Amino acid sequence: MPPRGNLMVSLACVWKTDTSVLFGVEEHEGIFVFENVAKNQHYVWKHYLLAWAVGDRVTCRRQRDRSTITTNPKNIASSRYFYELAEFSDLELQYLDNVAKRSRTELGRKVNGNFVDMFTVTTKLRRLVASLPPRDDETRAQTEELLRNAERGLGESWHVLIEHKGTPYLDRLRTGDASFWTDADEAIDFCFFLGAQFTRTARMSKAVRTVELPLGLDLARLWPLESHMWGTEIGAGFMQNRATTQATILTNETSVPFITGDQPIINLQPQADPKSVFYYPITPKIALRLTIAEPGCSVSTETVSQFEAERLNHQMFEWSDDQIYGVDGDYLEAMTNLPKTERFYADC
């Protein structure tokens, strides 16, 4: 078993050498040895999904195999080593550096540069280890385990940190309280939490596979790192536009509860410019709507009709990759029997 503690210190111990051997590979807070890395990694937060639980079980409709299950949230919205990082080539490292430098703000460039440094440290350590004199099979095996676990666990651990910061906001939203939106000091962590929840999903991971990059680069390999940078950009966008964004708590007292999906934050007007409307269901009876390009930064409450609840639920289904979640399995099944291209229109 590799020694516990910092990754670089542990590698030095395995190789029976001084940590100065690793000089030149930038070290970042949080780069620790990952033991017992979770294989089943969630791209939708388990704590979030519990709002739709009856007891400790959530009803899930899976579209690909057309089945409905009721299960513990640990068994849904997840995939094996979903956040695993690749060993990046020189061309990929250069591309990631360039993406970080293209951020719209100086702070964004700094934050995204730190992401690149942090999430490519295992690539740099692999290269360094390969340049050192050969060691015995046991040392090589321990080294591979340390680096492999870091590649598999680093992204998951980062999202756990973001979730921790988001917990108090989600708990307040569940009570219908969005007052933090008008306080810049409180809102900033929530904005970056939203950005991370938007980009971390399987739907976003699959969507980028259709994007063609120059020089034969594969965005699917880069996305486990690049998604953090885009999450930061989206979070910064929320914060930058907060002064002209209205936060509305939607309350649903109809017989049609809100559902959610494996893309839990959606843009109701993705083609709108400059006005965008983001929707985030919080519980079967409460949702958050952020309307950008409204005058002033404000918080309001609105009661939805059954028609509006149906429309929002269908848009959640439209944005989903494979799974939608709710409290009524029959309703979820009926929803997935509708075409995803079907639209609901408000009454005149």
Task: Write a structural description.
This protein starts with 6 loop residues before the first helix and ends in a 12-residue tail after the last helix. The chain has one domain (7-336). A hairpin with a 4-residue loop joins strand 3 (57-62) and strand 4. Mean pLDDT is 87; it is low at 1-5, 8-12, 14-30 and 342-348. Helices cover 44% and strands 15% of the residues. The protein is built from 11 helices and 12 strands. Helix 3 (90-101) packs antiparallel against helix 4 (106-119) and helix 3 runs parallel beside helix 9 (219-240). It is globular, with a radius of gyration of 22 Å. It is an alpha+beta fold and 348 residues long. The longest helix is centred in the middle third of the chain and has 38 residues, at 137-174. The strands form 3 sheets. Strands 2, 3, 4, 7 and 12 form a 5-stranded antiparallel sheet that branches. A 5-stranded mixed sheet has the order 8-9-10-6-11, covered by helices on one side. The chain has helices at residues 7-14, 46-49, 90-101, 106-119, 121-131, 137-174, 184-199, 202-207, 219-240, 306-319, 329-336; strands spanning 40-42, 53-54, 57-62, 67-71, 78-80, 245-251, 260-261, 266-267, 277-281, 286-292, 298-303, 323-326.
Give the SSE order as H and E letters: HEHEEEEHHHHHHHEEEEEEHEH
Number of helices: 11
Would you report the number of β strands? 12
What general form does the structure show?
globular
Q: Please outline the major beta sheet.
A: 5 strands, antiparallel
Number of domains: 1
Low-pLDDT residue spans:
1-5, 8-12, 14-30, 342-348
Radius of gyration, rounded? 22 Å
How much of the sequence lies in strands comes to: 5-15%
Overall SS class: alpha+beta
